[in-house]
Write a structure and sequence with these properties.
Layout: E1 2-4, E2 8-15, E3 21-28, E4 37-41, E5 44-48, E6 53-60, E7 67-74, E8 96-100, E9 105-110, E10 117-125, E11 131-133, E12 137-142, E13 145-147, E14 151-153, E15 158-163, E16 174-178, E17 181-182, E18 190-192, E19 201-207, E20 218-223
Parallel strand pairs: 5-12, 14-20
Antiparallel strand pairs: 1-11, 2-3, 4-6, 6-9, 7-10, 8-9, 10-11, 10-12, 13-15, 15-18, 16-17, 16-19, 19-20
């Protein structure tokens, strides 16, 4: 968490090691004991390129303050001026929507994500020096790719794996297509054993709910084994 001008209690511990380490713990407290905090769910997201992403969360603040503004920023932004503002609850765009309710719960909806970014929730109060910047929510963006041997010998085994550059959030269900037609198997990897000439063809994978965002096609060739 990042805090600007907040009252802090600092606890320092010195560890006796060959290279002494100084550990400092900062905790921001209001006069009534309420802490500043911003909590996200989830804190890290791996999403398909072109998909929709939801970030939910909640915050607390010292009761003697009055919240004046709540909004989202992302890198790069000016931490002193809080510009540019990425999303305000009253100014949704077609691809970015954000909300805050009276119970101090908030959400951010990103439609058609295309690149990796860090997003921060910002709170400003009636005291200029008293404002809070949450830790970043990191969104990684990936595309699907079918990984397999391009050629296998008939009666051997073929393994096709739908791969990503990061682990997709929410444990997705994978879908397979052969020559544009959906297969019954939802397993990943997809095992073909033993392989026959009928298994040759063009394979794609997708994630349930995002069937419109499939992987590029990968062609599997089955070579006949000649015996003398």
């Amino acid at each position: 968490m990042h805090v600007d001008g907040c009252k802090s209690v600092c606890l320092m511990m010195s560890l006796r090691t060959p290279l002494p380490t100084l550990i400092t713990l900062f905790m921001s407290l209001g006069v009534d004991g309420t802490e500043w905090s911003v909590k996200y769910n989830p804190t890290k997201i791996c999403a398909l390129k072109g998909s929709t992403v939801f970030i939910n969360g909640s915050y607390t603040y010292p009761a003697e303050l009055e919240v004046k503004e709540e909004f989202w920023v992302k890198e790069p932004f000016d931490r002193e001026q809080d510009t540019p503002v990425y999303c305000k609850p009253t100014k949704d765009s077609g691809t970015v929507q954000c909300y805050v309710d009276k119970q101090q719960k908030f959400s951010l909806k990103l439609i058609n994500v295309t690149k990796e970014d860090d997003y921060y929730f910002r709170i400003k109060t009636n005291v200029i020096e008293q404002k809070w910047l949450g830790d970043p929510v990191k969104i990684s963006v990936t595309e699907l790719l079918v990984n397999t041997l391009l050629e296998v010998i008939e009666r051997e085994a073929a393994v096709l794996t739908c791969t990503t550059t990061c682990s997709l959030t929410d444990s997705p269900t994978f879908i397979w297509y052969k020559n544009g037609r959906r297969l019954s198997s939802n397993t990943n990897p997809l095992h073909l054993r033993p392989v026959s000439s009928e298994d040759a063809g063009s394979y794609m994978c997708a994630v349930r709910g995002y069937e419109h965002l499939p992987s590029p096609a990968q062609t599997l060739t089955v070579r006949c084994e000649f015996t003398m």
